Amino acid sequence: MTITREMIFSKLPVLETERTILRKLQFKDAEDMFRYGSNEEVSKYTTWPTHQSLEDTRRFIEAVMNAYEEHKIAPWGIEDKQTKLMIGTVGFVSWNVVHARAEIGYALSRDFWNLGYMTEIMKRIVEFGFNEMKLVRMEARCHPDNIGSARVMEKSGMQFEGTLRKHIYTKGEYQDAKMYAIINEALY
User: Fold this and answer.
1) Residue-wise pLDDT tens digits, 62-109
2) Is pLDDT above 70 for 1?
3) Are 87 and 23 in contact (CB under 8 A)?
4) What are the two backbone dihedrals, phi and then psi, of residue 96, each rounded to the nearest 5 degrees?
5) Quick check: pTM over 0.70?
6) Please, what sign has the CA dihedral across residues 83, 30, 48, 24?
7) So what's the pLDDT on residue 11?
8) Alpha-carbon torsion 88, 160, 129, 94, what sign?
């Protein structure tokens, strides 16, 4: 049986890790998201601009909620179990069903950096991708200077495959991207 986007994203499942709950974003998350989305350290290496107002954040959440309604790929909000704060997002930014390949993207509040949260979350996303989506390959990219993100990918089991030169146009310039990937070894 072929896994389809609708099968996975018609009812985005709630996922858990030891310290987080991965769930749909809600409008009540706007202030939490603005707190990290307006931080220039957090947005420095992202493809999205720093949030300038709470309205920027609300527009983003509205776009994500529309994607949920249309059963399109959309991120999970990351809720910290202890504080109940929404501390980031994680999800698939693309999925090629024919080639059983998907790309993962994420952002995390600066307050939760270097504590192992994103590695914990990425391991859960990789497990979900292989077991539920039947992916053969998962990829993630980061800016060459984003050492923290590169470490997350490596600790999640991904291997560095190379630098894609002038791979993305963002924030007014063409930028290189380091490519990492993990293969579902159970299939081979």
Assistant:
1) 999 999 999 999 999 999 999 999 999 999 999 999 999 999 999 999
2) no
3) no
4) -100, 100
5) yes
6) positive
7) 85
8) positive
What tokens were used for 100? 């059983």
Tokens of 103: 């790309």
Quote the distance between the C-alpha of residue 23 and its chain's center: 12
Which whole-number Å values give the CA distances from 83 to 29, 35, 65, 112, in the listed order?
13, 14, 23, 12
User: Using CB atoms within 10 A of its CB, is residue 55 exposed (0-12), middle (13-18) or buried (19+)?
Assistant: exposed
According to the model, what pLDDT value does residue 6 have? 81
Q: What angle, rounded to 10 degrees, do the helices at 147-155 and 117-131 form?
A: 50
DSSP state of 186: G
Which pair of tokens denotes residue 16?
């858990």
Distance CA 110, CA 116 (A): 12
DSSP letter string over 19-58? Answer: SEEEE---GGGHHHHHHHHT-HHHHTTSSSPPP-SHHHHH
Examine the pLDDT at 24 and tell me if it is beyond 80: yes
- Phi, psi (rounded to 5 degrees) for 4: -115, 160
- Order of strands across the sheet with 20-23? 15-16, 20-23, 76-80, 86-96, 101-108, 137-142, 173-183, 159-170
